[in-house]
Design goal:
The protein has 379 residues and is of the alpha/beta class. The protein is built from 15 helices and 16 strands. The protein starts with a strand and ends in a 6-residue tail after the last helix.
């Protein structure tokens, strides 16, 4: 049986590019909304043979800043999804939003179009940190957007960052306290990273917290959110019971996903192979390529040697791990193919000893990259 299937829709435009961002996003000067929506629907229709007969369990509009698009555009896209695919009743439908691009009427329109969950890129409620991150919104807009999300959606996520320039432990916790005043069902807390080929990667901001302070921040945040009744269920994700992101859980459990839109990635399972795809990255080139039928820029079949790392890279992000049997269900390989790596990881205290579960220890969660490297081919 194939794994659960999700749909990812990439909307690549934003008001301006943040200096830490390495996503496939582009500053919007003239948003070609209608033409891009048409291209997405053609992309989806052409992908139908690859997902024929399979139910879509979740939809995620990511970016960029999807909230730049009108509610009518999101409605048209979701109407197309319902028409072309077997969208499951009660499917989770998430839309990412920037606090600087939302208003009450727009949120109401997104909900009426069928969006069930919004994810707000707050990052910080501190105006100094927002300026340092190059965000287009200020702290009052962040608070207003959180209030709107709480008003219009039963479940929503607030994205926050720690280890920001000049941030103290008290400052990191103050940011969490502000977020908790909006009673969010879900919080994502990310460590600011300096990605190559970004302005921050070329010229790091001054006064970044050192690794020890950043680790203290993460530990304090986890303790505070646990006290608030939120479960730390994935490396960067916390949720109240029943509010974990179903779409993201599918990624971490090595489920399948079809990605449409500029630069979108897919992972699709077939009886004899697992395939990864990537669409043409640049939005204008993507729209032209869709018309020509050349929009899939890369297709790669995962080899037997690829699969252990590909699976573990996702599954070990889950704090409670996954049943050991899921490895064979998702990859088609017996778990014995990575027995040497499992033994090394357990002997170094990075993986729990339970034979029926694949779960990183606390130490393994802290040194996750070291743990994952053990599952690379020929390591």
């Amino acid at each position: 049986m194939p794994p659960p299937l999700a749909l990812y829709v990439h909307l690549p435009w934003c008001v301006k590019k943040c200096p830490y961002c390495d996503f496939n996003s582009h500053a919007a000067q003239d948003l070609p909304e209608a033409a891009y929506v048409e291209a997405l629907l053609v992309d989806l229709e052409r992908a139908l043979p690859e997902i024929w007969g399979r139910r879509v369990h979740s939809v995620f509009f990511g970016g960029g800043t999807p909230s730049l698009f009108s509610a009518d555009a999101i409605d048209r896209l979701l109407t197309g999804v319902r028409t072309l695919t077997q969208l499951a009743p009660g499917a989770e439908i998430t839309l990412e939003a920037n606090p600087g691009t939302v208003e009450m009427a727009k949120f109401r329109g997104f909900r009426e179009a069928g969006v069930t969950r919004v994810s707000l890129g707050i990052q910080s409620f501190n105006p100094r940190h927002l300026r340092a991150l190059g965000r287009i919104h200020d702290d009052s807009e962040a608070r207003r957007a959180a209030e709107l999300a709480a008003t219009h959606f039963d479940t929503f996520n607030l994205d926050l960052m720690i280890a920001l320039p000049g941030q103290t432990l008290a400052g990191a916790l103050a940011n969490i306290e502000t977020a908790l005043t909006f009673a969010p069902p879900h919080l994502s807390v990310y460590h600011l990273t300096l990605e190559p080929n970004t302005p921050f990667g070329h010229t790091p901001p001054p006064d970044l917290p050192d690794d020890d302070l950043a680790a203290d921040m993460l530990q304090a945040v986890e303790a505070r959110l646990a006290a608030a009744g939120m479960q730390h269920y994935e490396t960067s994700a916390y949720a109240k019971p029943g509010h974990a992101s179903r779409h993201n859980l599918n990624y971490w459990q090595f489920g399948d996903y079809l990605g449409i839109g500029a630069g979108a990635h897919s992972k699709l399972s077939f009886p004899d192979r697992i395939v990864r795809q990537m669409r043409v990255k640049h939005p204008q080139q993507y729209m032209r390529a869709v018309k020509a039928g050349t929009h899939v820029a890369d297709t790669r079949t995962l080899t037997r040697g690829d699969l252990p790392f590909e699976f573990m890279m996702n599954a070990l992000r889950l704090v409670e791990g996954v049943p050991a049997a899921l490895f064979e269900q998702r990859t088609g390989l017996p778990l014995i193919v990575c027995s040497a790596a499992l033994e090394r990881a357990r002997s170094r205290g990075l993986l729990e000893a339970a034979p029926d579960r694949l779960q990183a220890t606390r130490q393994g969660q802290r040194f996750l990259n070291d743990l994952l490297e053990m599952f690379l081919p020929d390591v």
